[in-house]
Design goal:
With 578 residues, the protein is an alpha+beta fold. The protein has three domains: 38-93 and 394-561, Multidrug efflux transporter AcrB transmembrane fold (Up-down Bundle), CATH 1.20.1640; 97-198, Alpha-Beta Plaits; 250-339, Multidrug efflux transporter AcrB TolC docking domain, DN and DC subdomains (2-Layer Sandwich). 56% of the residues lie in helices and 16% in strands. Strands 5, 6, 13, 14 and 15 form a five-stranded antiparallel β-sheet that branches. A hairpin with a 2-residue loop joins strand 13 and strand 14. Helix 3 crosses helix 15 (431-445) and helix 16 packs parallel to helix 18 (526-559). The chain is elongated.
């Protein structure tokens, strides 16, 4: 996402810069004319603008010499931004309304296709009446047994797709509709089903958002650890469908061969194993060709006998010494046991994965923090890793600080090269904490979260918020070249660039309004639009207001002992005139 955003913004800036430097001057020379007559709207606007400008200049004259207060305010903004960021809800992707929700379910391990289909149909029968019911927004319901992806390899999984009406035809969001139907879905006996809302960007298929990996020395040790952790998770009502990929619930029948008895009767262990394997697993004995097509001939017991464990007692094996058929029940003992479906590994170590779904407005970042506390308290010796959305959230959270730091360093170095100074870029970069503070405030105000879209918006704010300070600092430097002192140059720069700053900032904020207003009522992509719109709108609003006071005050404070930018050029000219 960061790469695509960078490419799009770079191309857009290159094109807009080309238009501004070439086409705009030409179009201005052709269409702009000096019109002395002004309409009533323009006169009214000029009146309010001049009043606003006078108010700003009066307040600026008061605050421009209050550098200590402004430094304290900047420290407060920096600390507040860090605290707000740490306490803000975080998730990988915002909750989206895609006009559909899914019911992911499964039955007991080893269940047949028909048993799973019956449970899925029972949930489907509960949802179908909602299609014709007044006040509901269902279009149709689709069922599939087995489910998608890795779950399709076993018959104990199913998926139900509930298609909703178009956004303009309903007043409730998909999340509200889904929560109303939870009672009909999760109460089906002998089935574990839970509705989920699919994301706009698919991450880790339809797996649960919370996936924590425990690594240990043995599976017995891991089984004890996971029991302690899962017990604590089930006490938290914000978690649902808490499971582990290591559970001894796969039914198996263990054949314990009486070796002494088999040897006395002349039956080999190999004969017993190959007989059971052929009848229950099947064996291709030959192939049949017909009309150019090849068909395998499989030797296997019929399906009815393979379904029942009692059928093992009906198997006979031939003795190698007497040639007689001997019942398998006289040679082996049948023991029903449970075993793990898979023995997973992570980084070549024995591992188990504990997964869970989130209920209500409980955020993924809060869930991961809770999991870390529970694990450190109950099993401090365990090593923790993450999968799926949990892993992506951890990585993007760490990458944000790196990307943010690189963006600031790059912007600082570019401005240092342009201004031929390290002091002026510092003055300009002081607006970044203001924009971040405003962005986070509006994220919380609009009940959004810090996700990948709001993170991108925060990075974009670095560029568009420093623009206002650049206008003031650059104009003040030009006035200093003309011979004005630092304070008068800063005041004059603020007065002359006030209109440009207000116009550009206002146009940016107005462009964000559709992203905010468009989230009134359900709609496609509302979560991502709200994250971007609220972050940029709030960042520009707060940073624009405070930049008009912070930048000139800090410019006077930090550059009072610096020389004019053209001091080297002036000295060189003097030397050349000698």
């Amino acid at each position: 996402m960061f790469r695509e955003t960078a490419i799009s913004l770079t191309f857009a800036i290159v094109v807009s810069s080309f238009v501004a430097l070439t086409l705009s001057p030409m179009l201005g020379s052709k269409f702009l004319s000096k019109n002395t007559k002004k309409s009533k709207v323009v006169l009214k606007f000029d009146k309010y603008y001049k009043a606003f400008l006078e108010f700003y200049l009066e307040t600026l004259n008061y605050w421009i010499n209050k550098q200590k207060i402004i430094i304290g305010f900047m420290i407060f903004v920096l600390i507040a931004s860090i605290l707000l960021f740490n306490f803000s809800p975080k998730e990988l992707l915002p909750q989206e309304d895609r006009g559909v929700y899914l019911v992911i379910g499964k039955t007991d391990e080893g269940s047949s296709f028909q048993y799973t289909a019956d449970k899925a149909e029972e949930i489907e029968r509960r949802l179908i009446p909602l299609i014709k019911k007044d006040g509901e927004s269902y279009k149709r319901v689709i069922m599939r047994v087995p489910g998608f992806g890795r779950a399709s390899k076993s018959y104990n999984s199913f998926i139900i797709i509930a298609l909703l009406d178009d956004w303009k035809d309903r007043k409730e969001s998909a999340t509200k509709i889904m929560r109303k139907a939870i009672g009909k879905i999760v109460t089906v006996p002998q089935a574990l089903a839970f509705p989920i809302s699919p994301q706009s960007i698919r991450v880790s298929s339809y797996n649960k958002p919370v996936q924590m990996v425990l690594l240990g020395n043995s599976y017995d040790q891991l089984e004890e650890w996971q029991k302690l952790i899962m017990m604590e998770l089930r006490k938290n009502r914000n978690f649902a469908a808490v499971e582990s990929d290591y559970s001894r619930n796969k039914p198996e029948i263990k054949l314990v061969i009486n070796r002494k008895k088999a040897q006395d009767l002349g039956v080999s262990i190999q004969s017993i194993g190959s007989t059971v394997n052929t009848l229950f697993s099947g064996k291709t004995v030959t192939k049949f060709n017909r009309l150019g097509k090849e068909y395998p001939i499989i030797l296997q017991a019929d399906i009815e006998n393979r379904k029942k464990s009692e059928s093992l007692s009906k198997i006979f094996v031939r003795s190698d010494t007497t040639g007689k058929l001997i019942s398998l029940a006289n040679l082996v003992e049948f023991e029903e046991v449970g075993s793990a479906k898979i023995l997973a590994r992570y980084d070549r170590q024995r591992a188990v994965t504990i997964s869970a779904r989130l209920i209500g407005d409980y955020k993924l970042s809060e869930a991961l923090t809770y999991l870390e506390k529970v694990t450190n308290k109950n099993v401090p010796d365990a090593r923790i890793e993450w999968k799926g959305k949990s892993e992506e959230l951890k990585e993007t959270s760490n990458e944000l600080f790196i990307i943010f730091a690189l963006a600031m360093v790059t912007a600082f170095l570019v401005m240092a090269a342009n201004f031929n100074s390290f002091i002026h870029p510092v003055v300009i970069m002081l607006t970044v904490p203001l924009s971040v503070f405003g962005g986070i405030i509006f994220i919380l105000l609009f009940n959004s979260t810090i996700n990948i879209f709001s993170q991108i918006a925060l990075v974009i704010l670095i560029g568009i918020s420093t623009k206002n300070s650049i206008l003031i600092v650059d104009w003040a430097n030009q006035l200093r070249r003309a011979g004005k002192n630092i304070q008068s140059a800063a005041l004059e720069a603020c007065r002359r660039r006030f209109r440009a700053i207000i116009m550009t900032s206002l146009s940016t904020m107005i462009a964000m309004v559709p992203l905010l207003v468009g989230n009134i009522g359900p709609g496609a992509g509302e979560g991502s639009r709200l994250a971007v719109g609220s972050t940029i709108f709030g960042g520009m609003l707060i940073s624009t207001f405070f930049t008009l006071y912070v930048t000139p005050a800090m410019y006077i404070l930090l550059t009072k002992n610096t020389k004019r930018i053209d001091s080297i050029d002036l000295q060189l000219s003097k030397e050349l005139k000698r």
